[in-house]
Amino acid sequence: DKLYDRMRADTGDRGADADSQMVVMAADVLRSGLVPADLRAAIYRVLAKVPGLQITEQVANLDGRKGTAYGISAKGERRDIIVDPETGQFIGEREITEEGSNGIPPGTVTSYTSVTTSVVSGMGVQPPR
Questions:
Q1: How many CB atoms within 10 Å of residue 79?
Q2: What pTM did the predictor assign?
Q3: Distance of alpha carbon 3 from its chain centroid, rounded?
Q4: What is d(CA 100, CA 105) in angstroms, rounded to the nearest whole number?
Q5: Each residue's pLDDT tens digit, 100-116
Q6: Is residue 82 within 8 Å of 92, Cβ to Cβ?
Q7: Measured between alpha carbons, how far is residue 73 from residues 18, 62, 124 in Å?
């Protein structure tokens, strides 16, 4: 509850609306790849409390890897954070136009990413390929 309150206070009046800004803030933190499992879990619990948040299974990231999306719609756009349901790892984001514009039909993915995190045995060690 304290993390929710803090994120809500920090998002303020930024972005398309306060609820979608909660998803943006969570993505900003998760995108670093440096968030330990307990904090990632707390962030996902915070997102589950955001009014209007929708959870969608089997959403693909840029690499085609499928996960669970935590998403919210605001002003004709939907923003999703994609999470591997088995590991809890953040694996990407996507944005979808819901209303369409400039010849882009509604439902079109307008942006998406893929994030891969590796654990190595020590400083300077390259991750396995």
A1: 22
A2: 0.84
A3: 17
A4: 5
A5: 888 999 999 999 999 88
A6: yes
A7: 11, 20, 41
